[in-house]
Design a protein that fits this description.
The chain is α/β, with parallel strands linked by helices. It is about 35% helix and about 20% strand. A hairpin with a 2-residue loop joins strand 1 and strand 2. About 35% of the residues are buried.
């Protein structure tokens, strides 16, 4: 995408992250942004920003860990945290409800699955897994998919959604300029 924060790219006139926050906010009791570097760049969202506590830019798995640690410190009564990627603007409006309906005291992660495959960054995480996740990160583990598979994650299936008159993967992610253009076109069609 040419560098910088992908989530700040405009999508139908607004930053992708604004759409993520808008879609996620009614589903959760609190939100936090995981980002390394200067947190001031996200000040306009009015949300706390936490950096990875594991050094070396260890990727999304370190971000999940940072989120779990934030929940433990800021909301000690919560048993679960739900994560979404900031490049998936069409994730389901009932994502958290579906995860919680399947959780039933889960001690392992639940992750999203669609026709396109497993989306391990989008999941429900027992906060109690924070120490185990930190241990894995310090041992060099960097792959979310591998970690959740090794820890017996339950996959929760989400069907395609209709956006702009097309059926698409609910976890359609924006990785290339072409993806951003496609998502933009879908939202503009939907607005008609």
């Amino acid at each position: 995408m040419g560098g910088g924060d992908k989530c700040m790219r405009p999508l139908a006139g607004r930053p992708i992250l604004a759409r993520i926050v808008e879609r996620f906010e009614p589903q959760v009791s609190a939100m936090v942004i995981n980002a390394n570097g200067d947190p001031a760049r996200f000040a306009g969202f009015g949300l706390p920003v936490v950096a990875d506590s594991v050094t070396g830019f260890a990727g999304p798995l370190a971000g999940v860990h940072a989120g779990l640690e934030w929940v433990k410190a800021s909301h000690p009564g919560l048993r679960y945290a739900v994560t979404v990627a900031t490049d998936t603007p069409f994730f389901p409006a009932n994502l958290v409800w579906r995860f919680l309906a399947e959780a039933e005291g889960a001690s392992r992660p639940l992750v999203a699955r669609s026709e396109a495959g497993v989306h391990p960054v989008i999941g429900l995480w027992p906060v109690a897994l924070a120490a185990e996740l930190e241990k894995s990160l310090k041992a060099g583990e960097r792959t979310v998919g591998k970690w959740v598979a090794e820890h017996g994650a339950t996959e929760i299936f989400f069907p395609d959604v209709e956006i702009g008159g097309r059926r698409i993967d609910p976890f359609f992610n924006i990785n290339r300029p072409e993806d951003l253009a496609e998502a933009d076109g879908l939202l503009r069609e939907q607005a008609r």
